[in-house]
């Protein structure tokens, strides 16, 4: 019983967010998606069908009275707000509707929006502080958090919902028919049982090392004459999802996206960043020194021999050489220019070597999974074949002992955190010495994240979906269509229509390219809510049929899960692409655009208040349309625009990479994006400057998203007439739209959180809210911002 187990386990021990990052990024084939928006929810569970008691009726009466009082207070606060706002800004109020919305939902929406605002700030001076100032004052940064916003708050609530599922005896009984869920419960218990993990010590890893030929640092059993590099490379990739020398995976061909094909990147899994391994600056020298001590401490804990230092130095030297011959970012992912398709025979001829036989490797990797042999004529995509040749040449110039030791080090580095407290402490000391800080998290949080993000998202999503519809599985698929596929699809279609109208008005695009762009937008697929297989017991359990989980064998449980996940992906070899597949689960806190499928995905968890109202189809004004379009509408516009950013624009309506732009239009597009890149490069945050090149695709999507959503909202008004204004706010609905957009990015940071935000592919939150509206004349019009004011610069940048 979970409640009993929790009392027995030491759930108070602390780990770092680095542990989660390490555990979640073991797979060298990570999904490439255009956007991850951190949004999640905890749905309401349970139902009440009994009659009210007299006491409860009295309570209802009190609640009605309080709601009425709340409406009155909202009006009063609104009056005070409007009075203050008029004295501090140039807001021009437009009476877009002659009557206010006074429903309970409108009152609460008004109060919620009002709580975010700081009326002492002029929105034309700093819209972020105006739209988020009140929220920031009321939401200090929680302990051990680097950033806090609405998304992280909803993520916490979602994690709590998952904990309640995993602790509930009733849920375990209710879903006992699902073997996938039962395996998940066993895994969760094993993850929490640190007492059992510590008691087992290093034996699980010692046994694993023997399977891969042993390690000279910890044993004398290694035999060079029997060691087979290709055999162990294939085993590591197939069973452990490791790519110690290069990355190989099976996936859709970017230039023929209906076909799955073998693909290889000359990128190895490194223990330090490429910069730290190769730089002769203080940054690099210190990093390598700390790294050496880390390996020494880790191998000592595993029983390393006293004379292991020379081998460790050889490992690091080999890793440095490997890093130097790997492509550097952004060249490493410049698929447009690095893409090359060869036969296996040609690959062996060009990038093979005395030690590396590609046909032998691919056969050993794929035959056990697919039962199919790899022929000489089988096609393979390589992203940077010259770099791959450099790696195979390095193998020929390196002793077997060094290669074997390096490969085993990469194995150890990927699994040692499964061994217990001593090894977690080694990582903590390494991280503090290297980076100067350590962010602790609880063991329970680690286990929940692994369940949710990596291993058991599907069965957890099933329970999540059931909870949305009171467990009525017979009607779930139909209701998914009505609530998500209906209302949310209607909203997504509005955004697409607005985007198509915008394209027709562009003066920098020729007519042929416009026509193709419109076709791509029209053919863009929307996956909304959840895939049907989530509510199919048989299909759900089929995903986990090869997984073995025991409550006392945490180490082996993760080995079994890693192998099952990896082999499932490799099994796509020789099969057509599954167009119905989702890269994210319904409980994911992300939305994304898939370039190879020309598809937007909006999981159920993102479609919830305050961005979306699930009662929307039956109650048009339950959530103000301005709030709806400014919230989830801007998110949908963001993802749609990713289909036309610097990466997405390379793919056509079918998801195939080809040049469908005229030369003149492409030149104009590059001028437009150059303007945006230069603009963002002048924005500062935390004393640093935004990298306008690195953040360009996301900035294009942010700017385009709010514009498409606003136009879609205006289209809705044209079809349906003005909607009632929110009570007590004294704001126009256009102003409410922009406030709703901005509050998505209201955030508070620690000093390290600010550093992280500045290094992201997304611009820091304040600029995601500000820059997009600075470039949009409709914002200045809505708030009557004077030309040349900070939020209405004379020189604006616009792509879409």
Brief summary:
The protein has 800 residues and is an alpha+beta fold. Among the domains are: 104-140 and 473-531 and 581-783, Collagenase (Catalytic Domain), CATH 3.40.390; 211-414, Neutral endopeptidase, domain 2 (Orthogonal Bundle). β11 and β12 form a beta hairpin.
Task: Describe the fold and architecture.
Mean pLDDT is 84; it is low at 1-65, 74-98, 472-477 and 616-622. With 800 residues, the protein is an alpha+beta fold. The two termini are 55 Å apart. Among the domains are: 104-140 and 473-531 and 581-783, Collagenase (Catalytic Domain) (3-Layer(aba) Sandwich); 211-414, Neutral endopeptidase, domain 2 (Orthogonal Bundle), CATH 1.10.1380. It has 33 helices and 13 strands.
Topology (SSEs and partners):
Elements: H1 2-8, E1 14-16, H2 17-24, H3 54-88, H4 104-116, H5 127-138, E2 147-149, H6 150-167, H7 169-174, H8 179-192, H9 194-200, H10 203-211, H11 229-240, E3 247-253, E4 256-265, H12 274-278, H13 282-301, H14 309-325, H15 335-338, E5 339-343, H16 344-351, H17 358-370, E6 379-383, H18 385-396, H19 400-415, H20 421-435, E7 440-442, H21 443-455, H22 457-468, H23 473-505, H24 511-523, E8 525-529, H25 537-542, H26 554-570, E9 592-594, E10 599-603, H27 625-642, H28 663-681, E11 684-685, E12 688-689, H29 696-720, H30 733-743, E13 747-749, H31 751-759, H32 765-774, H33 777-783
Parallel strand pairs: 4-6, 8-10
Antiparallel strand pairs: 1-7, 2-13, 3-4, 5-6, 9-10, 11-12
Helix pairs in contact: 2-21, 3-4, 5-30, 8-21, 11-17, 11-19, 11-26, 13-14, 13-20, 14-19, 23-24, 23-27, 23-29, 27-29, 27-30, 29-32, 30-32
């Amino acid at each position: 019983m979970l409640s009993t187990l929790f009392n027995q386990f030491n759930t108070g021990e602390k780990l770092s967010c680095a542990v989660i990052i390490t555990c979640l990024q073991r797979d060298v084939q990570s999904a490439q998606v255009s956007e991850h928006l951190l949004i999640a929810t905890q749905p309401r569970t349970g139902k009440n069908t009994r009659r009210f008691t007299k006491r409860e009726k009295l309570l209802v009466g009190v609640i009605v009275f309080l709601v009425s009082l709340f409406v009155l207070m909202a009006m009063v606060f609104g009056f005070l707000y409007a009075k203050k706002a008029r004295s501090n800004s140039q807001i021009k109020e437009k009476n877009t509707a002659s009557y206010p919305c006074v429903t309970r939902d409108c009152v609460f929406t008004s109060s919620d929006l009002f709580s975010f605002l700081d009326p002492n700030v002029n929105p034309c001076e700093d819209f972020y502080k105006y739209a988020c100032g009140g929220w920031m004052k009321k939401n200090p940064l929680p302990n051990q958090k680097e950033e806090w916003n609405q998304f992280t708050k909803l993520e916490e609530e979602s994690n709590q919902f998952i904990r309640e599922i995993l602790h509930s005896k009733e849920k375990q009984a209710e879903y006992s028919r699902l073997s996938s869920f039962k395996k998940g419960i066993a895994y969760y218990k094993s993850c929490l049982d640190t007492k059992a993990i510590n008691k087992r010590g290093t034996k699980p890893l010692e046994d694993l090392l023997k399977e891969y030929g042993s390690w000279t640092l910890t044993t004398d059993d290694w035999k060079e004459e029997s060691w087979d590099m290709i055999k162990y490379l294939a085993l590591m990739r197939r069973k452990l999802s490791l790519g110690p020398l290069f990355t190989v995976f099976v996936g859709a061909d970017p230039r023929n996206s209906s076909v799955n094909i073998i693909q290889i990147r000359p990128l190895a899994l490194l223990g330090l960043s490429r910069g730290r391994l190769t730089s002769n600056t203080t940054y690099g020298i210190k990093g390598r020194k700390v790294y050496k001590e880390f390996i020494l401490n880790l191998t000592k804990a595993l029983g390393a021999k006293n004379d292991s230092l020379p081998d460790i130095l050889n490992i690091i030297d080999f890793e440095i050489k490997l890093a130097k011959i790997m492509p550097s970012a952004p060249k490493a992912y410049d698929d447009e220019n690095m893409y090359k398709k060869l036969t296996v025979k040609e690959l062996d001829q060009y990038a093979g070597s005395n030690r590396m036989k590609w046909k032998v490797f691919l056969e050993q990797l794929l035959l056990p999974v697919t039962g199919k042999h790899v022929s000489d004529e089988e096609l393979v995509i390589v992203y940077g074949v010259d770099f791959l040749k450099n790696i195979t040449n390095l193998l020929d110039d390196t002793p077997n002992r060094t290669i074997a030791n390096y490969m085993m080090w990469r194995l150890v580095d990927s699994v040692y955190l499964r061994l217990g407290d001593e090894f977690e402490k080694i990582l903590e000391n390494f991280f503090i010495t290297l980076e100067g800080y350590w962010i602790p998290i609880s063991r329970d949080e680690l286990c929940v994240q692994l369940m949710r993000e990596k291993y058991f998202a599907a069965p957890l999503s099933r329970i999540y979906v059931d909870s949305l519809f009171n467990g009525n599985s017979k009607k779930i698929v139909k209701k998914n269509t009505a609530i998500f596929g209906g209302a949310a699809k209607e909203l997504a279609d509005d955004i697409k229509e607005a985007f198509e109208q915008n394209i027709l008005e562009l003066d920098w695009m020729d007519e042929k390219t416009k026509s193709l762009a419109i076709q791509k937008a029209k053919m863009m697929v929307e996956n909304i809510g959840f895939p049907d297989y989530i509510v199919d017991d048989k299909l759900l359990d089929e995903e986990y049929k090869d997984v073995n989980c025991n409550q006392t064998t945490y180490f082996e449980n993760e080995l079994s899960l890693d192998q099952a996940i990896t082999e499932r992906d490799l099994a796509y070899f020789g099969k057509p692409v599954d167009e119905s597949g989702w890269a994210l689960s319904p409980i994911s806190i992300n939305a994304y655009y898939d370039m190879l499928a020309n598809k937007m995905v909006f999981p159920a968890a993102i479609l919830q208040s305050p961005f979306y109202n699930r009662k929307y189809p039956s109650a048009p004004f339950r959530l103000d349309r301005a709030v709806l379009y400014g919230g989830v509408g801007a998110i949908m516009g963001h993802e749609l625009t990713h289909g036309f950013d610097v990466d997405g624009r390379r793919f056509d309506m079918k998801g195939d990479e080809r040049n469908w732009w005229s030369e003149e239009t492409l030149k104009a597009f590059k001028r437009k994006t150059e303007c945006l890149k230069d603009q963002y490069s002048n924005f500062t945050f935390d004393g640093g400057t935004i990298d306008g090149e690195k953040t360009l695709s996301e900035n294009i999507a942010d700017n385009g998203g709010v514009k498409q959503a606003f136009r879609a909202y205006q289209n809705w008004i044209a079809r349906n007439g003005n909607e009632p204004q929110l009570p007590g706010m004294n704001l126009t609905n256009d102003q409410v739209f922009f406030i709703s957009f901005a509050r998505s990015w209201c955030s508070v940071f620690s000093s390290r959180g600010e550093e992280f935000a500045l290094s992201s592919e997304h611009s820091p939150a304040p600029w995601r809210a500000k820059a997009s509206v600075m470039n949009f004349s409709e914002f200045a019009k809505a708030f009557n911002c004077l030309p040349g004011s900070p939020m209405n610069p004379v020189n604006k940048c616009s792509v879409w």
